[in-house]
Write a structure and sequence with these properties.
Layout lengths: L2 H20 L9 E5 L3 E2 L12 H13 L5 E5 L5 E5 L1 H9 L4 E6 L4 H13 L6 H19 L7 H15 L5 H9 L5 H8 L5 H7 L4 H14 L5 H12 L5 H9 L12 H5 L8 H21 L3
Parallel strand pairs: 2-4, 3-5
Antiparallel strand pairs: 1-5, 3-4
Helix pairs in contact: 1-2, 2-3, 4-5, 5-6, 5-7, 6-7, 9-11, 10-12, 11-12
Length: 307
């Protein structure tokens, strides 16, 4: 294994290192235990994808050589076995490396504590997909809201949401505005969200389309396939506007998606031809004035004629 890839492995686990210490308070005498992989179950609604990519290959290679350097974090399940809170990728890598157990620390955590811990131990990873961030931020926001309870006041929901999103942005590379926009993506049909992950549908139009009803999104998806088009940001904004006015029928969608984009108008008038019509003494500005006044007359005459 080259120097580069082992450096990347160190970087990959460093945040988990922080978390195995810096998560919910360590209880005295907490110890690492080896638990059979079949006893470890995924976290319910876990938004992060465990991919067989290059980073996974490196993790498998590292595990073959060094074993798992950072234990996973789990909590007991009522129905037996343990729920993984941090360590889904490590568990998969162990399986690929042919191992049968994983070192873990067992903690008694409630649902919200577990959610916050699970999201935070993954959000810092590089190269997260938009869908992973979207669902992670949404889960974290919901957990923070439940823990904080609803603030009092008239506009409590909005105030509560803005307050919670600002907390999210404190520990994140994303601004509060962007976190809001990521959370919007969870309103998309899974097929549209997949297009965002696949870099087919850009982020900004996707945020606008998230305001369409699920039914409208379904119709739009069908039309996009039929016409082989992706809505531009401008088109997505107009689709949203019509949707909010309750006027987004299939025909309106079709019209917006198939409209001709106006081509840039660029007419060049050759001076050789123009000279035939003007006295030699005319300047370019004088010529332009005459041409435009003639066009005005032509336009008036034309509009007076019924088609």
């Amino acid at each position: 294994m080259g120097m580069k890839s082992s450096a990347r492995n160190i970087q990959m686990t460093s945040y988990d290192d922080l978390f195995s210490v810096g998560g919910p308070a360590e209880t005295p005498g907490e110890k690492v235990q080896e638990i059979a992989l079949e006893e470890l179950f995924p976290f319910k609604g876990h938004p992060f994808k465990v991919l067989d990519d290059e980073a996974m290959e490196e993790m498998v290679e590292s595990i073959r050589i060094h074993g798992v350097l950072v234990p996973g974090i789990v909590r007991p399940r009522a129905e037996g076995g343990y729920e993984l809170i941090a360590g889904h990728r490590r568990r998969h890598a162990l399986e690929l490396a042919g191992k049968t157990t994983m070192p873990v620390i067992i903690r008694e955590l409630d649902d919200d504590e577990s959610t916050l811990f699970m999201v935070d131990s993954n959000l810092q990873r590089e190269n997260l997909l938009p869908s992973e961030k979207a669902w992670a931020y949404k889960m974290k926001l919901d957990a923070i809201r439940r823990k904080a309870g609803r603030p009092a006041g008239n506009n409590s929901r909005q105030v509560g949401e803005n307050y919670s999103v600002s907390i999210l942005s404190e520990n994140s590379n994303d601004s509060a505005r962007n976190i809001h926009r990521f959370i919007r993506l969870t309103e998309l049909l899974s097929e549209l969200l997949q297009m965002v992950d696949d870099k087919k549908l850009p982020f900004n139009p996707a945020v606008e389309l998230s305001y369409l009803t699920k039914e409208e999104q379904g119709q739009l998806l069908e039309l996009m396939g039929k016409l082989s088009v992706m809505p531009s940001l401008e088109q997505a904004k107009r689709l949203k506007k019509y949707s909010q006015e309750g006027k987004l029928g299939r025909d309106v969608m079709d019209a917006i998606l198939t409209e001709e984009r106006p081509a840039a108008v660029n007419v060049t008038l050759k001076s050789e031809r123009l000279k035939q019509y003007f006295p030699k003494s005319f300047t370019q500005t004088q010529m332009e004035e005459v041409i435009f006044s003639l066009l005005e007359t032509w336009k008036r005459d034309r509009n007076g004629v019924t088609e």
